[in-house]
Amino acid sequence: MIAEITQQDSANTLLNDYIKKITGQGFSGDTDTSYATRIVTATDNSIYQEIPQAVIYPKCTKDVQVAMQVASLDPFLSLSFGPRGGGTGTNGQSLTPGIVVDLSRYMRNIIEINEEEGWVRVQAGVIKDQLNDFLRPYGYFFAPDLSTSNRATIGGMINTDASGQGSLVYGKTSDHVLELKTILVDGTELNTCKLELEKAQVLAEQTNRVGEIYNVVLNSCRDNRALVLEKFPRLNRFLTGYDLENVFDSEMTTFDLSRVITGSEGSLGIVTEAKLNVTRIQPFKTLINIKYDSFESALRNSPFLVAANATSVETVDSKVLNLAKQDVIWHSVSDLISDVPGVDVQGLNMVEFNGETPEEIEGKVTSLCAQLDQLIANKEAGVVGYQLTNDKSDILKIYAMRKKAVGLLGNTKGKQKPLAFAEDTAVPPENLADFILEFRELLDSKGLHYGMFGHVDAGVLHVRPALDMCDPEQEKLLREISDQVVALTAKYRGLMWGEHGKGYRSEYGPEFFGDALFTELRKIKTIFDKSNRLNPGKICTPLDSADSLVSVDDQKRAWFDKSINIQVRESFENAMNCNGNGLCFNYDQDSPMCPSYKVTKDRRHSPKGRASLIREWFRLQEEQGVDLLATEKTLIEKENDTTWWERFRNTQKKRKGFYDFSNEVKESMDECLACKACTTACPIKVDVPSFRARFLNLYYSKYNRPLKDHLVAGVEKTTPLMAKVPRLTNFFVNLPPVKSALKNIVGYVDTPKLSVPTLASRVNSALMYDEAQFAKLSKEEMSDIIFIVQDPFTSYYEAELVESFITLISKLGNKPILLPFVPNGKAQHVKGFLKEFKSTASSANEFLSRIARYERPMVGLDASLVLCYRDEYLKILNKDELDFKVQLAHEWLATQDWNSIGRIENEVPVKLLSHCTETSAMPQSKNVWSEIFSNLGIELNTPTTGCCGMAGTYGHETDHQENSRNLYEMSWQHHTKNMASETILATGFSCRCQVKRYENQKPMHPIEFIAKNI
Questions:
Q1: What is the pLDDT of residues 675-730, one digit of tens each?
Q2: Which part of the chain is the FAD-binding PCMH-type domain (predicted)?
Q3: DSSP per residue over 662-704, as a string?
């Protein structure tokens, strides 16, 4: 079972020498040759996989320069490099067999802003949304808008000349680049900007490296100007990589070398800094969501909408719309895109107007609405309805839905998944409907399903056919479709790539450029990188080079995946389905997704990273002849057949440095907080805690478990015993020698104190469940009973909360009954004790199913444990539905009549901070609490927060103290620092413990607050 990959396989001698050399020359960033990092970096948001030799993470331009200068020395001339940003490309632009230069980890500094002149200077690793969050207080934004804006870097946008929504008005990234700082393959620093043609000619006459580049590019673009203008279609989404046309202005009075570098996909140099122009935010917005009876109607109606002088016109088809409706994000927009009675909406156009004043857009909006009313009345153009919104937050919700819906395409059921490989074609907008109809005929003729969305104002539509790349016949279809779409695009005088760059589609470059102009591209590549060492194979190769362009037929992720047993693939679908869209790299610190990545910025510690690692682990286990599913079944249903001695011996070998890829996977899994944000926030629903638990169960069949895992897994057995003598237990646990032993031997800190007095002494015996007595009760006598389902945290460490809930239930006119404590098993699952968890779940299921027969509500207080019944129980017990349902407190409270309670007099502001697991799984929970408090006359402030950093036992483990604190400071501390002047409430037990640890003051649960004030 142990995958033996030698250190020599991970990094050869030349590579090690290179790493040592750059470190010795002052490279201050990180270097990583581990197999785990290489596997995680081997994919992007495309269908391809290319394992690099190593990954380096520069911290500044000087680091990049050092890396390139050393690489230009013998014996390192055979090394190649590929710059990487957010890794969100859909065509494999950042994949390389050489050394990845990842600028996203550290180079995220916004260097300066000039408000008066409207520009900003940034490092290449700055994330698009990060930049706009910085610019917003100044009244500016960086205009090119991408669906991946919360993880796409500026450097990546520059290298693919990215664009998106609103490009008709705002243009592409290249339209906003004022200056670039680029490091060439030999370490030369090249600074470029728009110059008067005479100045560019002077530079071209210099006899240095910069002069040679200016000379070749200037002459190539000038001498072929007429051919360029004739060859390239007049489109908003003009041809990228390399932009031979727009290096000159229309009058040929200026020359800008940055235009060639922008869109070059890192094949000419490594962009480290950029000066960008920024756009004034227009304060007034209106969005009109227009609904259609067919997608064709939506497409054919788009020129009419563009003529209305809108800022942007976006479209989605019914496939994308219906996927969004099945996701938690639909809750945020369901009232903004409501159904049309009696009509099946098959298409949606989203038309946005912006203006400096309300009057500036009022006339346009009124005119368009009047025309839409007429179309609806006359049943013309397929328009069946529309909705209008002026609220900026609502508009953002709608666009967030559309952005996520793009990723949701990858979560369609079955083996065939919509794939991005020929999906950013651009044609003149007036040709779009006819082009798409032929495109659909092509896909329909092959019996394929697909989703469509895009920017109809610019003639760009994303079409993602569903294919199973593990099926050789369907892989052949990918080539057939690609070739036919190239021909179809040419027929409609369009481009194969209108937004997402070339990458592995570079082989089609000669067909679009023609031999003469493609030769000019090769001249430019030659002067920048004559040995083809920068992102080799992308866009073009140097003149006289024997190297080939990359191809759509090149190595794909599926080539690795299909070597995994099909039963394993199906069983671990929640890992196998990851398509690399990278939403887990969301930079927003207040998003619950994904705390371990946010705090480490290490992509191994992300859902995508962990899915990549576990897939490779499956493959390597297959190579070793291990039957994973049979082994897992034995471990859960019988006994581990590996002896204690064998586990001890394997553990000792690990300590001595014996290489096993399993240990690299384990290192990544250890950083997971098991918060489950990925199960809902990820559009593919990559469920890391589920496959992590299964991995740990298998891993520890071969290695010894640490003592702390046994203590955590047994917490529901030991805590009730300790609670019999709570004062003695608290005294003992807080003795300095015991605390030291827990920290240094067990690896556990800040143990919470047991409640004194205990819950048992707080609750009247008449409120305790007695099965014999309950069997005698009539339905009428049971009519007001509410069962409280205990959990180990609130029952034994926060008995005052359970007592408050009992009080509140009584005040609402019901009779609370405290069920006996029955272990839930969540901790066992988190630590991968699946045999024990199955036993615990079976017992709890049997007990709670008996209680369910009374047909009265069962309510629990801790979100993690209550949600465990709804998720982990179904999987371990192999059920589609349980015979019982446990509600969370707010779910039950929302159904109650609060008129009998009255209003609470409260002058201090009240703020509720939500548990991240609850927020992810139940996005409406904050709204429910707000409504409950509104009934009591209190306005509840519910800010968006990420993970507090505690997450069950994660924050108590010694190894995680720094990350736990950093997460708290990142997302929570600015909300809790004013606890003296406002009332802070928190729904999570872990969250309350974390605040108490760092602020020395514990927030109340909202139930405690209500119970104390009514």
A1: 998 988 888 889 999 999 999 999 999 999 999 999 999 999 999 999 999 999 99
A2: 48-281
A3: HHHHHHHHHT-----THHHHSTT---HHHHHHHHHHHHTTTSP
